[in-house]
Amino acid sequence: MPTPICSFCARPESAYRRFIAGRGVFICSDCVRTAAQALAEGTGATVVCALCGRADAPEHYIRVESGGHLCNLCAHAVHHAVQDIQSQ
């Protein structure tokens, strides 16, 4: 049987302490927290990072010209990778 992954952020069950299973879908504790915050704020708007698949509120993302989004963590990782390449 394949390892369950979160249906929202695509991370494996082993990455979380709490993982909720539904009928053919799964959600991790981080995505539950994100959804709860969106509901509490009265907005259901979320975007998904084009690199890691993490979903969160739009203000935590950078819009890429090609039409996708990058989360802050991936944006920093890309920035540092570009700096490393340029310094070689």
Pick out its properties.
88 residues, two-stranded antiparallel sheet, alpha+beta
Structure report:
The protein has 88 residues and is of the alpha+beta class. It folds into two domains: 1-43, no CATH class; 45-88, no CATH class. It contains two helices and six strands. It has helices at residues 29-40, 72-86; strands at 19-21, 26-28, 47-48, 55-56, 61-63, 69-71. The strands form three sheets. A two-stranded antiparallel sheet has the order 1-2. The longest helix is centred in the C-terminal third of the chain and has 15 residues, at 72-86.
Query: What portion of residues is helical?
Result: 25-40%
The strand count comes to 6
Shape: globular
Rounded mean pLDDT is: 76
Distance between the termini: 45 Å
Which range does the strand content fall in? 15-25%
Strand order of the largest sheet: 1-2
Largest sheet: 2 strands, antiparallel
Class of secondary structure makeup: alpha+beta
Weakly predicted, low-confidence segments: none
Give Rg in angstroms: 15 Å
- How many discrete structural domains? 2
Order of helices and strands: EEHEEEEH
Number of helices: 2
